[in-house]
Amino acid sequence: MTDRELVAFLALAAPRLGLRAAGFRRVRATLRKRLARRSRELGLDMSGYARYLDAHPEEWGWLDACCRITISRFGRDAPVFAELVARVLPEQAAAARAEGRGRLRIWSAGCASGEEAYAVAIGYRARVAPLEPRLELEVLGTDVEPAVLARAARGGYPAGCLRELPEALRALAFERRGREWFVLQSFRVGVRFERSDLRAQAPDGPFDVVLCRNVAFTYFEDALQLRVAQVLASALRPGGLLVIGAGEALPRSSLGLLPEAPCFYRRAPEV
Q1: How far, in Å, CA of 160 to CA of 180, rounded?
Q2: Which range of residues forms the domain containing residue 155?
Q3: Quick one: 9 and 110 in the same domain?
Q4: pTM, entire model
């Protein structure tokens, strides 16, 4: 399969799945390998595979799963992660304490193998918990893919997944076992994972911080992006923060989410 063939195929197939073909620009090589393998299994070329989709509607479920990009890293987008730990988490923790709440709730939407959820918990326990010792932390990671959720629950990662996490946090929160690095139990407290499709539903809120990075606002088509933005806004506590990925932007008509800094949007406080 050539890159040109993949681009042409995505232009036709992606909208049927609520996806943007352009969103896959940087990961086309990964997608091309997956589709080439599937075409070989079926004994088809790409034009034949397109016809196969028309004749076998159940195959769209396989293609939808094929298009899920689950690459993540601890501390991804270092400036965004630093802002989250240095400003957003302390601010939200202080607000929770001032309002008499006993816990801080964070949702990692599209959490893949759990790197983001654990990284937030590590940053919080290292930098914020000493200032707010009575405040409990709850981090919920959701994803639609069972295989990545199983890896998240295991909590072991190759060294490459940790390369963007500050060295001090790596030394504090991990232990090495063979070729993998495992999150220490003390940094797993309050972190849990469950299967959920961001396109269909949101977990019970409200949350103080929602992270939805490099998923909806990269790969979803415009109408679906808007619907997801509204779901994320409704899941936030008034005054809470939505964090998106570097290079992403919310749909212009996203109501109730006010841009505050690159990648950070605040749900408008109630009046």
Answers
A1: 10
A2: 78-267
A3: no
A4: 0.92
